[in-house]
Design brief:
The chain contains 14 helices and 15 strands. By secondary structure, it is of the alpha/beta class. The strands form 3 sheets. Strands 5-4-6-8-1-9-15-14-10-11 form a 10-stranded mixed β-sheet, with helices on both faces. The protein has a 3-stranded mixed β-sheet with strand order 2-3-7. Strands 12-13 form a two-stranded antiparallel sheet.
Length: 412
């Protein structure tokens, strides 16, 4: 099955500016972001991307209480994707379904909360929750989705820092081609805003965004950018082999065209544009395309001063010349950085471009940094284009993990 064509047949998501693909896309085209101010333990008011989905749509109150926020996000997105695909929980081939969810981190929220709770009782561990261990194991979000859906096939998470959303889809593609599963639920999730540690960590690196107007705080490529807006969110897809999707008459959003994953091996935090360029080029080669064949490039850019410049350097090396039909955008300007969910959400935001031939913009760019002035960059307003047959999605992460995923318009 190594040559099987793999297609996307369902999308389920929750983002700071939408709880369905239609709502999310509509807000991206309308310039509506989703950043607000929240109270963070020990740190006070901070800017964050908060999701406002209803976890009780697919869970009971006790299940929400016993489980985790990332588990609830996973269950919501998995159920929404399944419904969108035209499959039902009853018709799902449970022992031949795989759940593959990308994560940046997991367990920090629950451990911080438990330490805070027992601090009220002189740190007496008899008040420590007996749910702590299942809440904090790394496979928790996929495991909670498995329990909710009754899936008995493989269900686990993929730790790949902020490249993890792409990695969920890449891994699912590989498992389908290996014949390990017949149906996959995959993507990425994040509960990052509920841990003060990640806010404190980025603040200590001088990488946490500040702005008087919350929805203007995430500003990739702008000269005044000053850091990351931390967000929660999730986006899961259903993937199938083409013949299986066609046999049941499923609608098809797109086909997986190519991908590549590599590592910088150069720094804990700072990106390496040479390795990023290599990752992009390798994904394009695997897809049997040239740079000029790529119509949308969604950037990873997080609005850190150096990180944006480094990525733009890598993109310019690939698409800087001879690519007049290549358009470049960024989704974090709307929703902030959803960590493990980022790549999956950013791909989803661009998928409807196959139908409406419109590229959503990067917003909040008042003064474009000349070092980020890429050819084809779409700023502040959507751009109607003549052709969208391919979308390239970049997601990069700490410790030098890079992932590039390419999807193409489905053609029979």
């Amino acid at each position: 099955m190594k040559d099987s064509r793999i297609v996307i047949t369902g999308v389920g998501l929750t983002a700071p500016n939408g709880n369905t693909l239609a709502e999310f896309r509509g807000n991206l085209l309308a310039g509506v972001g989703g950043i607000e101010q929240i109270e963070v333990r020990y740190m006070g008011p901070q800017l964050a991307g908060v999701c406002h989905f209803d976890p009780l749509k697919y869970q009971k109150k006790k299940e929400v209480r016993v489980g985790t926020r990332s588990g609830s996000i996973s269950i919501y997105c998995a159920r929404e994707a399944l419904a969108d695909s035209g499959m039902t929980v009853e018709s799902l081939p449970k022992d031949r379904t795989g759940i593959y969810i990308g994560l940046t981190e997991h367990g920090n929220v629950e451990t911080e909360n438990e330490i805070y709770a027992i601090s009220k009782f002189g740190y007496d561990t008899k008040y420590w929750s007996h749910y702590h261990n299942p809440r904090t194991v790394a496979n928790n979000p996929a495991g909670e989705a498995s329990l909710n859906l009754g899936v008995t096939g493989p269900a686990y998470t993929i730790g790949a820092a902020c490249a993890a959303g792409n990695m969920g889809l890449i891994h699912a593609t590989q498992m389908l081609r290996l014949g390990e599963v017949d149906f996959a639920i995959c993507g990425g999730v994040s509960e990052s805003i509920h841990t003060f540690g990640i806010f404190a960590g980025f603040k200590s690196q001088n990488a946490l965004a500040t702005h008087a107007v919350p929805h203007e705080a995430s500003r990739p490529f702008d000269l005044a950018r000053n850091g990351i807006v931390i967000s929660e969110g999730g986006c899961l897809y259903t993937l199938e082999r083409l013949e299986d999707a066609q046999a049941r008459g499923a609608k098809i959003y797109a086909e997986i065209a190519g991908y590549h994953v590599n590592s910088d091996a150069s720094d804990y935090v700072l990106p390496n544009p040479v390795r990023q360029t290599e990752c992009i080029r390798a994904a394009i080669r695997r897809a049997g395309l040239t740079p000029a064949d790529i119509h949308i490039v969604n950037t990873h850019a997080t609005a850190t001063p150096l990180g944006d410049v480094q990525e733009c350097e890598g993109i310019r090396a690939v698409f800087g010349e001879g690519c007049p039909d290549t358009h470049i955008n960024n989704t974090k300007s709307f929703i902030g950085h959803a960590m493990g969910a980022a790549g999956a959400l950013e791909l989803a935001g661009n998928l409807p471009s196959f139908d409406d031939l419109t590229v959503h913009p990067t917003i909040n760019v008042v003064n474009l940094d000349p070092l980020c002035a890429l050819p084809g960059l779409v700023l502040n307003h959507p751009r109607k284009v003549a052709k969208v047959d391919t979308i390239l999605n970049n997601s990069f992460g700490m410790l030098g993990i890079n992932s590039t995923l390419i999807v193409r318009r489905f053609v029979r």
